[in-house]
Amino acid sequence: MSKFTSLFKESWVEVTENVTWPKYSELQSSSVLVLVASLIFAVLVGLVDLAFKSGLDLFYSSF
User: Fold this and answer.
1) Dist. CA 21–CA 34, nearest whole Å
2) Where are the transmembrane segments (predicted)?
């Protein structure tokens, strides 16, 4: 049990004293960037999926 408490205490000191946390504005801008990139990627994947579906529907309807 002492190993667990030692690990917890050392982890707490590491997180509270040695970690550099980003500012709220940095987190906000990073989150917006991830959101925009995810939406662009989703639209591109959707367009590729639509193109393949249309192409395969056209191909299979010819038989």
Assistant:
1) 19
2) 32-52
The closest of 63, 59, 40, 41 to 51, measured between CA atoms, is: 59
Tokens of 8: 């917890």
Encoded amino acid at 18, one letter:
N
Segment 2-56, tens digit of pLDDT: 888 999 999 999 999 999 989 999 999 999 999 999 999 999 999 999 999 999 9
pTM of the model: 0.64
Task: Give the whole-angstrom CA distance, residue 40 versus residue 35.
Answer: 9
Distances (CA, A) of 5 to 8, 12, 39: 5, 10, 44
